[in-house]
Structures are given as C-alpha cells and as structure tokens.
Amino acid sequence: MLGLRMILYNPRYSLALTILILQLWGFGCNDSDYVIDVPSYVTAQEGLCVHIPCSFTVPTHSPVSQTAEGHWYRPRAVQNLMTSSKDDPRKRMFFTGKIPERDCSLFINDVQKSDQNSYQFRLIDPKTLYNYKTLPFLIVTELTDRPEIFQGKLIAGKQSTITCRSPGICAGTPPDITWNGKYGETKNFLHPYPNYTSVYYSNFTFTPSRDDDQSSLTCEVAFLQYTSVTKHMVSLNVEYPPDVIITLGESRIKSFPPQPGPPDSPCNFLNIFKIIFYYFIVYRDVLGLVFSVINCTF
Ligand SMILES: *[C@@H]1O[C@H](CO)[C@@H](O)[C@H](O)[C@H]1NC(C)=O
Ligand SMILES: *[C@@H]1O[C@H](CO)[C@@H](O)[C@H](O)[C@H]1NC(C)=O
Ligand SMILES: *[C@@H]1O[C@H](CO)[C@@H](O)[C@H](O)[C@H]1NC(C)=O
C-alpha cells in the first residue's frame, strides 16, 4: 500500500504513467509521420545567445490544435525547461514561433557552460503526446567573438568619441563594458530590435593629445558577471600639427615637412604666403599650426 502511494505521489512516476497512457491513446500512429527538422548540432558561445530553428510534422489525419503545447526538456530530466503555454520572451529560454504553426524554434540567452546538453521536443495535444526522436545537441564554446571598435578622425585637442559594439544580438543580461588605457567618460547604451533582441554599445569620450598618437585603447566586454570576457585593443591615430619650418638658404625658401611643387622657391612674401596657405588647407582641422620663418630677408 505504502509502495503504491509512493509511486502515485512521486512526480517522476506519475509523469511516466501519464506518458504511457497518452502514448496508448495515440496508438496506431506511425513514427514516420512525426518528423522534427532541427539541426543535430548547434554551437553557442558562453555569455552570448543562440537561436535554434525548428519545425515539426504530425500525421495529416490529426493536425495540431490551437491549444497544443510544446515542451523542451533535457532527456531523463524530470522538469521541463520550457513550456509554450508559459512562454515569455523575457525569460532566458523561450519559443520564437507558435506551436499550432508547427514551429518549435527556441532561443537561449546568457548561454552558460551547463547548457551544453541534448534537448528534446515534446508535443502535447488533447489526443497526442509525442517525444520527437531527433535531439539537437548544444555545444557551448569559449567566447571568441571580439567587440568592434569604431573610431572617427582623432585630432589633438579636440574632444572625440570612440564607440565599442559588444558581440552578439541577444536579449540577455546587459554585459559590463569598460575602457582601459585612457581617462575619459564612458556612456553605455543599447539598441533594441523589435524581436526582443538588442545590441549593446559603449561610447568613450575624451580629448586626445599629440602624445596619444599610436597609444592603445582597449574595450572590454564581460558577460555573466565576468565569467566570460572578451576585449579588443586598438592603437589610436591622432592627427596633430606638424612643425612647419621655413628657412632661407641662399635666398631660397625650404619648408619642413616639404610642400609639394618646387622644393624650394625664392624667399618672398608671395611664396611664404603660398606655403602657409597650403598648410592651412591641408591641416585646416588642426589646432595650433605653428609656422616659423627663419632667416628670410626681404
Ligand atoms: C509507417 O510509414 C512508413 C512510410 O509511410 C511505412 O513504410 C511503414 O510501413 C509504416 N509503418 C507502420 C507500422 O504502419
Ligand atoms: C555615441 O557616439 C556616436 C559617435 O560619436 C554618436 O553618433 C552617438 O550619438 C553616441 N550615442 C550616445 C548614446 O551617446
Ligand atoms: C532580430 O533582429 C535583428 C535586426 O534585424 C537581426 O539581426 C537578428 O538576427 C534578429 N534575431 C532573431 C532571433 O530573429
């Protein structure tokens, strides 16, 4: 008596019993009518997300009803991972399609090492309970995607913004984005898409100096409380004014850096004006262009 009660109250046994009954209900159904189209292996990077496309068929004589429910679970696990009737795209795992439309696609956010497993789809309809036979296997790898860095023209003395884009188009927990190598102001933001996914960005605003040219700046993106970290380092190209020196040698003008055209020209106001005008056009965005005119007698 006690033994029977244990069986009846143990959720694992009662589930097995229900499955047995429902399978008998669908007796006469042919397995080849139940086909699931899902990749057998799917790879995801730790911290990012994964979309597993999936569709399934049922026998033509018993189409999927509007109230049909889909489950994803791990084989031999007692608890479901996902139930279509309790679906919500704000959850870590959710359905991206509708079960009555025979869409069993799923999305997993904040992918963790422990998600590496096989997954099985179960269809529950008033007259059917079917566990589909192809089980996609999720492989979780280290995070290898790097953030992308976008830098515009950097000019010494002018405030500039460099943007970092986190890898992944996900709907999970926002990553921590930080900048290393320079002092500046960081502003993190996201670009949401209507399909509940987002791309995360960070803007780094600073005023580069001449000394920042060829120095490095790193954007670091950390997921799952720094369990999974990726970074990208760039070296900065900062434009700064050249030292323009106009000197007189044997009554002729030379300039450094050299100007195009005749390498040197007679030392007179017009030629000096031409050189200054040339540098002014080329470096018009640059502050603090300094000309020195040495040894020029008129
Ligand atoms: C199931 O269907 C396949 C293909 O339609 C057929 O070859 C097979 O004999 C069927 N099996 C049963 C038990 O009806
Ligand atoms: C981030 O920087 C880019 C480039 O300067 C700018 O276009 C964008 O408006 C900035 N976004 C925010 C939220 O500050
Ligand atoms: C969501 O929308 C974005 C932008 O259109 C797209 O790149 C991404 O693949 C979509 N994700 C899914 C799961 O459909």
From TrEMBL:
* Recorded superkingdom: Eukaryota
Every copy of the Ig-like domain together lies at 136-230
Q: Which GO terms describe its molecular function?
A: carbohydrate binding; sialic acid binding
Compartment(s) where it occurs, according to its Swiss-Prot or TrEMBL record: Membrane
Q: Which GO terms describe its cellular component?
A: plasma membrane
Q: Per its UniProt record, what SUPFAM superfamilies does this chain match?
A: Immunoglobulin (SSF48726)
Give the InterPro entries listed for this entry. Answer: CD80_C2-set (IPR013162), Ig-like_dom (IPR007110), Ig-like_dom_sf (IPR036179), Ig-like_fold (IPR013783), Ig_sub (IPR003599), Ig_V-set (IPR013106), SIGLEC (IPR051036)
Membrane topology term reads: Single-pass membrane protein
What keywords would UniProt list here? Cell adhesion, Disulfide bond, Lectin, Membrane, Signal, Transmembrane, Transmembrane helix
Secretion signal, residue range per the UniProt entry: 1-16
Question: Cross-referenced SMART domains, in alphabetical order?
Answer: IG
UniProt GO BP: cell adhesion
Transmembrane parts of this sequence:
none
The UniProt entry, under PANTHER family, shows: SIALIC ACID BINDING IMMUNOGLOBULIN-LIKE LECTIN (PTHR12035), SIALIC ACID-BINDING IG-LIKE LECTIN 5 (PTHR12035:SF125)
UniProt similarity note: Belongs to the immunoglobulin superfamily. SIGLEC (sialic acid binding Ig-like lectin) family.
Q: What is this protein called?
A: Ig-like domain-containing protein
UniProt source species: Engystomops pustulosus (Tungara frog)
